[in-house]
Please model this.
Amino acid sequence: MQVPAPFTYERAHDVDGAVGLLERHGPEARLIAGGHSLLPMMKLRLARPETLVDINDLHDLDYIRLDGGEIALGALTRHAGGLGSGLLAEHYPIFAEAERVIADPLVRNRGTVGGSLCQADPAEDLSAVFAALHGRAVIRSSSGSRSVDMREFHVGPYETAVGPGEMLVELRVPVRTRSGSAYEKVERRAGDWAVAAAGAFVQLDDGVVAGVGIGMSAVGARHFTCPPAEEILAGQEPTAERIAAAARTCAEHCEPTADQRGPVDYKRHLTGVLVRRALSRAVAAAQGGVA
Model:
């Protein structure tokens, strides 16, 4: 039987209380909400937190709303909430497309957006989405809040910019007009981690790319993105040739590892295919006036 190592359990009732518990128990304390990533790692003893701080009572961190020209998502927003959000569907279809292929309904009903991002799994879908959309993370501590670009949020595999005594409380993405977004993923079976996945965001101004973001997951892309590929499209007409060149650049710059899901060459090729598809759909949506 797989059982976790011993730990202390605490329950927080507000953000200040959660932060206080994290400070009191030190760097070996971990927050838990859905627990679908953390608990399996604890059972395998790959994670050994000394204290778990339950934050399921922090209902004020479960929201999706417009705020000052940005869409704000509370860190405790469940995946099912993101999937069913009319606001996100109106502005960024990439969210629903990614959420729809995350695990299964059980996980989506309990797992949280913030928990997935803080787990920092290299194959996590929403990390690629927020990288493509140039999102921001709001992190709280006892001394106040700070904002971190999502492209700097993930320090490395299973590591984030959230330090001891801090917690992620909100994600923000700017609202943009004349834009399109899309997410593409290949998995061995429904709900599995990706073999490779790619998300794209494109904003057009008079037929020229005024804003672009590319996110990639499961293929060793630094910070889940590829700025050199974005530079190929920025300020240019998004022709099929430029889209193909950007996709090739993504395939060249990613660093996948060979595993049971496939060899390196296959994953590189698949990355290029998925980036091209996502960019093409995002451009088509932007040209059609669909956000």
About this structure: The chain is about 35% helix and 25% strand. The chain has a mean pLDDT of 94. The longest helix spans residues 264-287. The chain has two domains: 61-173, 180-285.
